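Student: Please help interpret what follows.
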Amino acid sequence: GEIKSEWSKEDSKFFWDITIPGNTSAVVRLPKDFNIITPEGEGVLNISSTNEVTEIELGSGTYKLEGTI
């Protein structure tokens, strides 16, 4: 299957729609400055962060990430 990704920015809000195909996972890395609201659900496999980035491992499925810039 295809990995799909579409993002947008409205005022100071950031939105990112991501689709991960079946039987796969993906690691999404975003700057910590984006203040991402951590997604929840069984497809969210791992969340970690450093001083610079937030890293989210996602299993198969469709996700909506959002934050502020």
The radius of gyration is 12 Å. The first strand starts at residue 4 and ends at 10.
